[in-house]
Design brief:
It is a single chain. The protein is mainly α. It has 5 helices and no strands. The longest helix is centred in the N-terminal third of the chain and has 22 residues, at about 5-25. It is elongated, with a radius of gyration of 21 Å. It starts with a helix and ends with a helix.
């Protein structure tokens, strides 16, 4: 029997909401930070399970830019930096 992704998505969304409610009712202060983080990113978390996509490629590209920038120990000419960046990674 194949489980429909829409059903799984709804199941996960309801479980996450129930977990959040239980944490709020429990009064454990140690869970407040994670609970708040999950609720701030609730839609993004659910989108992952719906679309199976992450921002990993954007994070990877940002890391490459940071590493490239660190090689030059500062940027004096922004236009030249952008030109080099475009030539290497575009």
């Amino acid at each position: 029997m194949m489980v429909c992704l829409t059903d799984f998505f709804k199941f996960f969304a309801s479980r996450l909401a129930k977990w959040h409610e239980k944490v709020n009712q429990s009064g454990f202060k140690s869970f407040n930070t994670i609970s708040r983080s999950i609720m701030n990113h609730y839609q993004t978390i659910l989108n992952y399970f719906h679309n199976r996509s992450t921002n990993a490629s954007a994070e990877s590209f940002n890391a490459k830019i940071k590493a490239f920038r660190s090689q030059f120990r500062g940027i004096r000419n922004v236009e030249f930096f952008l030109l080099r960046l475009t030539n290497i990674y575009a």
